[in-house]
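Hey, why these numbers?
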Amino acid sequence: MNKTDNSRRRGDELLESLYNATMKLTTTIKLTNLTFQQIADEAKTSRTVLYRRWATTFDLLQDIYSYKAKKLFDGAFFNELKDNGNLRKDLLQLLTVYQKVHTEIGAEIINNYYFLRAQDKNDNNELLIHKQAVEKHLNATKKILANAEKRGEKIRKISPITLMLPYDLIRTENLIRPTNISKKRLTMMVDEILMPVFVG
């Protein structure tokens, strides 16, 4: 497919192409040096296509961060969770799924998303997305703990802040350790932090 054909792409296909081209270029080019012409060449489209949608490369990057980070917030990955027979295995599964999503999206994108969101605290749409995401994370932990109680495991009475601990742990780990976290480290987090907190 030549550049002319690619320039006629529309909707999600075109956006995905532009996003992927941009992220590929950021691995070798500093963000401050990135140009629309470079992105257009990589995506095999015209520079006009980018200027129609974004005024600057910073605006494009902000859209990329939001677009990709929403995968973390839509909660669809919770569908992978199942009852493994005990709390320890359920918590390890939860952390493993969280880490998988973080790895797929990328620590840089997630961290930049939070940074950009903090700059515009009055964005009602983003605030709603964040609030809904928090509820999904809380409900996932609640469900895991409720299943443990049904099995006869003794669970502490805890606050919503503590219910967010599995997610907050993964987020913090990825903030300070951008490389993929090993299964051994996830297991240590469950055994040394989560189990003592949740089990009475």
